[in-house]
Amino acid sequence: MSNATASAAAAAASVSAHLHAIKHRGESEYPKQVWYLTLSALCLATLVNISCIAWSWGRVHLRSKSQPVNEAAHKDGFSIVRIPAAILTASRIIAFRWQIPLGTTFSMSVFEVFISMIYMSALLIWEFVHTNNLDPDFWSNKAAHIAAAQLPLLPALSSKNNVIGWLTGVGHEKLNVLHRVVARCILVLIWVHLWGRHRIGFTGVDDISVFGWQQLGLTAGTTYTLMVVLSIRPIRKISYESFYLVHVILA
């Protein structure tokens, strides 16, 4: 073997090892980084909740120590102290009461749309970064890993009494909105994974008829898709009891 051939083989092996390292890092590290983002958001919400509690306690404490004032004059007058509460109330009205129609029978709140866009954008950035010019070998399995890593969020956000609500001060109904957002974003990643596996192929070394784990993955993806589709608001309104029963069985 000539020196040129040996050098070319060594260079090819080096490139292959480098690409393999990138692929492995994407599948093992990026799902963790998505969780770091999620935990950071929860920490921020917790700090905001603590700040609101401290602000409310401080207002009550200071008011109890101050001299009594004429209630009628106090109600009619303008107070700077009320501005944060007014801003918070207005933001809640805009976020949760304003509905954005999506078709004739479906709508989403402003908060739901905003969180969906932010969360989905973050997931897709981690999904398609460092994928060797969008090679399916680099992003197909990564999508499954990121989706699987986010699955624990679903039961955590769906239960009425949970640590997330206690830390953030967010009620069950609003956490349920986040539950639906996370579920839909995970569904997108599942279908990205299935599309990537389709691009790679289900024959040869990846013969789906041979590997049981691929068959289980296809079954799980189909079941999850059915569960999310049957959870949309128009179907829930028709018969909530039936929806709940099917939801629990499929989950």
From TrEMBL:
Keywords: Ion transport, Membrane, Transmembrane, Transmembrane helix, Transport. GO terms for cellular component: plasma membrane. GO terms for molecular function: ferric-chelate reductase activity. The chain crosses the membrane at residues 33-58, 79-100, 106-126, 177-196, 216-235. GO terms for biological process: copper ion import; intracellular iron ion homeostasis; iron ion transport. The keyword Ion transport applies. It comes from the Eukaryota. PANTHER family: FERRIC REDUCTASE TRANSMEMBRANE COMPONENT 3-RELATED (PTHR32361:SF9), FERRIC/CUPRIC REDUCTASE TRANSMEMBRANE COMPONENT (PTHR32361). This is Ferric oxidoreductase domain-containing protein.
